[in-house]
Prior knowledge:
Elements: H1 3-27, E1 28-30, E2 37-45, E3 55-58, E4 61-67, E5 72-78, E6 83-84, H2 91-102, E7 114-125, E8 129-138, E9 141-152, E10 155-163, E11 173-174, E12 179-192
Antiparallel strand pairs: 1-4, 2-3, 2-12, 3-6, 4-5, 5-7, 7-8, 8-9, 9-10, 10-12, 11-12
Amino acid sequence: MKAASRFQMFCMALVLPIAMWAADGVASREIDTQKSVMTVRVFKSGLLSAFGHEHTISAPIRQGTFNERDYAAELAVDAGKMRVMDKDVSEKDRAEIQETMLGPKVLDAGKFPEIRFRSTAVESKAGGHWIVSGELSLHGQSQPIKLEVQGENGHYRGRTELKQRAFGIEPVSVGGGTVKVKDELRVEFEIVAKP
């Protein structure tokens, strides 16, 4: 083999991995945390549940990326920045609910400050719908979950349901259990890519 041919092969061996890495970088997009929204819906149960409150929790996304070509996503939420948004309770009650949610009985945000999701597989459905499988790390435990997702071109919305007990969280109850929070939560999200 001539020296010139060996040199060309050597150059290609160097350039090809760099070009492939650059293409991967283009395919990955950063989540616009100012335009993206994540909401947790908490439901009530129990004998006197009519006197309890269902809760709406804002869970701002701290950072994240997704890759539309490889159908991969990863994001993080700062547990300490989650906020109770209930409008049908007093400011004092909202503050108490907030304290309970962030405290050791529920999220224990001081000990477990970050909530993370990482996709592991995607199943394509008709009409721009997908089932995204992944791993959710919450309250010091990681569990597999599935998300229903729809959208395109850097704008996606979806939802999932999860059980608090699967992550070592005992649902809150008051009045000897006559009013309590359901184990099942619903998480809704709208993800927008940075331009």
